[in-house]
Amino acid sequence: MAHLDSSSWPSYAEIDPEYKKVSQFLETAPRSYPLPSDPSRLPAMRVNMMMMQRKAPLQQIDRTGVAQTRVWIICRDGHSIPAAVYKPRTPTSGLMAVLFHGGGFIVGDPEMEAPAAVELVQNHSATVISVDYRVAPENPYPQAVNDGLDALIWAARNASSLGADLKKGFLLGGSSAGGNIAAVLSHMARDTKASPPLTAIWLNCPLTIGFEAVPEALKKDYNSLEQNADAPVLLNKEGLMTAYSFYKPNQSSQVFSPLLWESGHQGLPKTQLHVYGLDPLRDDSLLYARELAKAGVDTRVDVYPGVPHGFDFDAPQLQQAAKFREDRQKAFQWLLG
């Protein structure tokens, strides 16, 4: 697998010419970024982010044939969390998918995964649950993972009543922080021999290891945090450190750093990763993919050189963004085929 040769990874940070043309505008456009270091500003940022997201071109997607509802999931502590459910308007008995949104464990909402969810419904007759897990600093580590596990168990138990058939497939996925949650849960499900088992994992620019927990043997290949420290728009090193300060993870724990999972990665479902060259988390994804491949996990990687974390949200008109959408479609076909 070409992308798993670490000698090529630094070259992925060379800025994409098309992105370079729009990046100056994006940096000066009104937005709710970067992540605020003052927790008191978070509520306003969450509202602003949601309003911007509703207006974003990426969200103006064709939802023909897709019904969307809201459910409440009771967690282990008795607290209820909401989730968006996307399913075919014409009742079918298709596969189940559970998705987790990004946002640094401190912002975000289920609608951020709407493009992937709608695609799964329209192309695969899936029932998709996008989970609104609790976020920091109000709910620090490991609350997001606990909510994620409770939601995954709830989805499996309620699949039939939601119109899904787990025998046709059970996909777990997420983006950024949500990708971290999904990667952790994939190992938990394997270790507990969850039945029915997960059949596919979809990870979009996931965080897979705490920067302070990178083993000595891997440090030579873990360069993107510093190389992309000043990456534009959605995520740079400062923003990532802010997220860490609010979420307060135990970086050495496998429940935050699934790359370090103590029982290894053997036996995980087939896994797809999408990786961005200007992303501080680029090497999280590539190291994780390499370790999965070494463990015999059927793994595919798509890399988008020269674009930052979540670039498709702000610049969906780019050729790289169009390629990402095409690759995502192919990824779901591969994962669910």
Automatic annotation (TrEMBL):
Record bears the keyword Magnesium: no
A Gene Ontology cellular-component term: cytosol
Keyword vocabulary terms for this entry: Hydrolase
InterPro entries registered for this protein in UniProt: AB_hydrolase_3 (IPR013094), AB_hydrolase_fold (IPR029058)
Annotated Alpha/beta hydrolase fold-3 domain residues: 98-311
GO terms of molecular function: sterol ester esterase activity; triacylglycerol lipase activity
Name the UniProt record assigns to this protein: AB hydrolase superfamily protein
Natural source organism: Cercospora beticola
